[in-house]
Write a structure and sequence with these properties.
This protein has 301 residues and is mainly α. It has helices at 8-39, 77-105, 111-227, 231-284.
Length: 301
């Protein structure tokens, strides 16, 4: 059995495929050499795969994101609020730039290597932005805590000031009430002390009136005797004496009414003063911090 002759067509196709692969390898090598020459003669930097892709000029690195910001340096509230917006904008810009770099990686020969490099730099950029954002949020939280503490201290100071003012007002109302009570008690004691004297004067006035009436009656009898029994003159004299008695009684009644009215007016003023003191005391004892106000006790006479 004769041996098989080699398939010259298949051999030719294998040789052609090998030559195509060699051409691609040489093309990639020449492209890397050209990029190295473009970066500078004698440069020791590794080949920038993403930068050699069409549409991408330079690679985005973490130090280039907000380079003027030091996440470890202290900052004030205004700076923190400004950086809060700046971090959001920088994060969006970084996402857009890295997305364009990932798209450009598919135009290069070393796609996987290019995508891995983009992922590494993306983690670095996000880590830097996260550190800045943490510092900003910490500064804002501390500022908010300080503001809350300041407001709480102000509220406590105002509450203590109101409590002191209320205590002073209650003390003033108490002293005024005690002074008015003492004055009313003194007036009552004085009236009670003067009552016997007034009764004595009233009794003396009654005795004096009876004496005058007796004298008038005697004078009337004497006048009738001197008149020789003139009935008209005696009647006129009797009418005159009766008019004088009525005038005296009316004057005494008016005096008694005025004295009673003055006593009622004094009692009414005392009650009104006690009521006003009680109202001021009640308004001065408003509840502070949830405490219940205590109504003042007004003595009843």
């Amino acid at each position: 059995m004769a041996g098989r002759r080699p398939n010259r067509g298949a051999s030719a196709r294998i040789v052609a495929a090998s030559r195509n692969v060699a051409r691609l390898v040489l093309f990639a090598a020449f492209a890397g050499v050209g990029a190295a020459h473009a970066q500078g003669e004698g440069s020791t930097e590794p080949l920038d795969v993403a930068a050699t892709a069409p549409g991408v000029s330079t690679k985005l690195r973490a130090p280039a994101v907000l380079p003027e910001v030091d996440a470890n340096a202290p900052m004030d509230v205004a700076r923190a609020r400004t950086l809060q917006d700046a971090v959001k904008i920088a994060r969006e810009d970084a996402d857009d730039t890295l997305t364009r770099e990932r798209i450009a990686c598919y135009r290069t020969f070393f796609v996987n290597r290019c995508l891995a490099d983009v992922r590494v730099r993306q983690r670095q950029v996000e880590s830097r932005l996260d550190r800045i954002e943490v510092a900003v949020n910490r500064t804002l939280r501390e500022a908010d805590a300080l503001e809350l503490n300041r407001r709480a201290a102000q509220v406590l100071a105002e509450r203590e000031e109101r409590a002191d003012a209320d205590a002073a007002r209650r003390e003033e109302n108490r002293r005024a009430y005690e002074a008015r009570t003492a004055s009313a008690e003194a007036e009552r004691v004085q009236r009670e002390a003067e009552a016997p004297e007034l009764e004595r004067r009233a009794a003396a006035n009654r005795a004096e009136r009876e004496r005058r009436e007796a004298e008038n009656a005697q004078r009337r009898v004497d006048a009738e005797r001197r008149a020789g029994g003139d009935p008209e003159r005696a009647a006129a004299r009797e009418r005159e004496l009766a008019a004088r008695r009525r005038e005296t009684e009316a004057r005494e009644a008016r005096d008694a009414t005025q004295r009673a009215r003055r006593r009622e007016e004094a009692a009414r003023r005392e009650e009104e003063a006690a009521r006003r003191v009680a109202q001021r005391e009640a308004s001065g004892r408003r509840p502070v911090g949830g405490a219940k106000a205590v109504e003042p006790v007004v003595p009843v006479r």
